[in-house]
Design brief:
- The protein has helices at 22-38, 63-72, 91-103, 108-132, 136-146, 153-168, 172-184, 188-200, 204-216, 226-238, 252-264; strands spanning 52-55, 60-62, 87-89.
- Helix 6 (153-168) runs antiparallel to helix 7 and helix 9 runs antiparallel to helix 10.
- The chain is elongated and about 85 Å long.
- It has 270 residues and is mainly α.
């Protein structure tokens, strides 16, 4: 009886030849591609740039990221040496990345994030087109696409401008968000007036803000009145979307804030 050792070719009495190493070659190729792609990661965001530009230090960056950096510093994020403000479009880099992502050469988290950001930019361009055509809702969404970057004065300015235009065109959530920007810039009196109007028209978030105003009071503008604060919290929970586009249903955050205030002030008469 012949006993075979694991992996031994019983018929020939010798070890079988190694199989074709295609899998190994593919793995090496993937590793080489990943390393090559890493060269195009924005040094600031550490993500593939959707709108790549070449800075004067010779490195490729996401346009918004390096733009914000240069507002704060005159030095390269990579070399820490002085460099100018000039940025050149890196269209070939964008085209190459798009081809590699679509073909599957770049995959995984890097590709997923790049596609998500590309989709967001495409959506923003569509809102831009609609907003320039007079769509007040698109104006508000476009404002929101610029919002959230408090350290980027250009983005803050664009968000405020589109919210204001949305409000001027009669969109209630645009009015609420415009009031938010006024408040953040220290214009609390004007913000309060806009919140009041938006809340009266049925915007749940504006109702929460007005409730907060009455709960705290504003020196020189509004006396503290917790009974009115409670009424506005209750109104926030009762808000509905109206046929004319006014009003906005309370979201989870609105409900949580309103209910938290009501629970903490249960003894206040409505």
């Amino acid at each position: 009886r012949t006993f075979e050792r694991p992996g031994q070719d019983a018929a020939a009495g010798r070890m079988p030849p190694k199989k074709d190493s295609a899998a190994t070659s593919n793995k090496l190729l993937r590793s080489a591609i990943d390393k090559g792609v890493d060269e195009f990661l924005c040094p600031i965001t550490q993500e593939l740039p959707v709108d790549p530009v070449m800075a004067e230090d010779g490195h490729v960056y996401e346009r918004t990221a390096i733009g914000q950096w240069l507002q704060r510093s005159g030095k390269s994020p990579v070399t820490n040496l002085e460099m100018g403000q000039k940025l050149l479009d890196a269209k070939q880099v964008r085209s190459m990345l798009a081809t590699m992502v679509k073909s599957g050469a770049i995959s995984g988290d890097k590709a997923d994030k790049w596609q998500e950001r590309l989709k967001a930019e495409d959506q923003a361009r569509e809102w831009q087109r609609e907003a320039e055509g007079g769509d007040a809702r698109a104006m508000c969404k476009l404002g929101a696409s610029h919002d959230g970057a408090d350290d980027d004065s250009e983005a803050v300015g664009k968000a405020r401008m589109w919210y204001q235009r949305s409000a001027q065109h009669g969109y209630n959530r645009g009015l609420t968000n415009y009031a938010n920007k006024l408040h953040n810039s220290g214009e609390k009196g004007h913000a309060a007036l806009h919140w009041m109007e938006a809340a009266t028209r049925g915007d749940a978030w504006a109702c929460i803000q007005v409730a907060g105003l009455y709960s705290r009071g504003i020196s020189g503008y509004l006396a503290q009145d917790k009974e009115l604060a409670k009424r506005w919290c209750l109104k926030a929970l009762a808000c509905k979307l109206k046929d004319d586009g006014d009003g906005a249903l309370p979201d989870e955050d609105d409900e949580a804030k309103a209910n938290a205030w009501l629970d903490a002030n249960a003894d206040v008469a409505a």
